[in-house]
Design goal:
With about 425 residues, the chain is α+β, with helices and mostly antiparallel strands. It is built from eleven helices and 22 strands.
């Protein structure tokens, strides 16, 4: 029997593609790529990928149909928000299990997500929108202060800014407008980038929920605590640690709130990644993405089945092909990942202390993903991290200490931006 083929939708710059390739090799699965690679050069990445454009869904789906007509696939997986939308559409076209095109579109748009939850009478903050370039100076907001300004379709806390008064709101709107006019954002050709969302600030600690949806029902596979406070003015994520230290009753409420949001969105089959806060008004689901956890953070998840250890990518590939994953459980050890923040803007000259960081008890690995000479841009304008630190310890508290200690051992040599003459 030929190995099952899985179609992976991703960007050419995605961190997770290599991890999926390794997982496919271990499982004996053939991976077929659909990426936003150059369409005029002959296989520039040497990966035989189907060339797609996230802003041109019809043409991309035609290419997928043509490529799979004599080369059928058994399942579809996506990494990243825009790939997830196109992957859901492709699953519909090819008659394969997926989240559904409309559900994935709503999940990927912060305004549509808020509107859908409000329609279903699920909890959420008050919200409104402002069109880029058309706001009034001294913009007034009905949702009150504090509030949060967000682009509708950027991820990773990019462009998310808290405002506590009218002056701060004016500065935040100006800053987000400037971000949405940057070349890399305009190149997305996403109509959602014409609007900014303003919503009431939700208090309380933040959590991330990772799950698999089967026939519309959510199975939670991990809940991450975010031990660093995320109260603004910017919301750069740093540490995720699992298992969660929430009391069992509150954990059940959190998982039920995410399950309700999954049903409200109409997500049907595949991974989801949700962000939530648990505050004075209970659980608030901030967003549910129709994709797995991003970047290299999936390496913080390991699963066990019949004495064997599986990566999360292996679990996702098996789920995509219809194989049973109900007996797979997360490992017993606590696991933490730190997304290494960018301390200041400039050009990366080098990183020291990596061996000392790797030598911290419990640290699995330190991966510096930024390259020497790369221009570094911090949140809220930035879209990447310096790298990742992974640790496993008997308790969540010890895992957090391990990644913090490793981070303290690192030294970042960042040359300042030079002003243009």
């Amino acid at each position: 029997m030929p190995p099952p083929r899985v179609l992976l939708f991703a960007t050419t710059t995605g961190y997770q593609v290599r991890a999926f390739g390794e997982a496919a090799t271990r499982l004996g699965v053939e991976l077929v790529f659909a990426t936003d690679r150059c369409q005029t050069l002959d296989d520039p990445w040497r990966d035989a990928a189907i060339p797609i454009r996230f802003h041109d869904e019809d043409a991309s789906l035609r290419r997928v149909r043509e490529a799979t007509a004599t080369w059928p696939v058994a399942g579809i997986v996506a990494v990243g928000d825009r790939p997830a939308v196109l992957a859901a559409a492709a699953a519909d076209v090819l008659g394969l299990p997926g989240h559904g095109r409309d559900a994935a579109r709503v999940a990927a748009n912060k305004l549509w997500f808020r509107q859908r939850l409000r329609e279903r009478r699920l909890p959420g903050p008050p919200f409104e929108t402002v069109r880029v370039g058309e706001r009034a100076r001294g913009q007034r907001v009905a949702c009150g202060f504090p509030c949060v300004v967000k682009p509708l379709a950027l991820s990773g806390s990019r462009g998310v800014i808290r405002a506590d008064d009218a002056a701060a709101l004016e500065r935040a709107l100006t800053r987000v407008e400037r971000l949405l006019s940057q070349r890399d954002v305009l190149a997305r050709r996403d109509p959602a980038d014409a609007l900014m969302l303003i919503e009431g600030f939700v208090d309380g600690p933040e959590f991330a929920v990772e799950g698999l949806v089967q026939d519309g029902a959510l199975r939670v596979v991990a809940v991450f605590d975010k031990p660093d406070p995320l109260d603004g003015p910017f919301f750069e994520e740093t540490i995720y640690v699992t298992p969660s230290r929430l009391p069992a009753v509150e954990l059940a409420r959190l998982e039920r709130a995410v399950a309700d949001a999954v049903v409200a969105l109409g997500l049907r089959h595949g991974p989801i990644h949700a962000e939530c806060r648990v505050g004075s008004r209970g659980v608030c689901v901030l967003e549910v993405a129709a994709r797995p956890i991003g970047g290299l953070c999936a390496r913080a998840l390991r699963f066990e089945e019949a004495g064997e250890t599986r990566s999360y990518e292996e679990v996702l590939l098996r789920h995509a092909t219809g194989a049973a994953v109900d007996r797979i459980t997360r490992e017993r050890a606590a696991s933490a990942v730190m997304m290494i923040p960018i301390p200041r803007a400039g050009y990366l000259a080098g990183v020291g202390g990596t061996e000392a960081a790797r030598g911290v008890p419990g640290v699995d690995d330190v991966r510096i993903t930024a390259k020497a000479g790369q221009r570094l841009v911090p949140i809220p304008e930035g879209a990447s991290y310096l790298g990742f630190i992974f640790a496993r310890r008997p308790t969540p508290e010890a895992a957090v200490v391990a990644v913090r200690t490793a981070h303290a051992a690192l030294r970042f040599d960042i040359a300042p931006d030079l002003p243009m003459a």
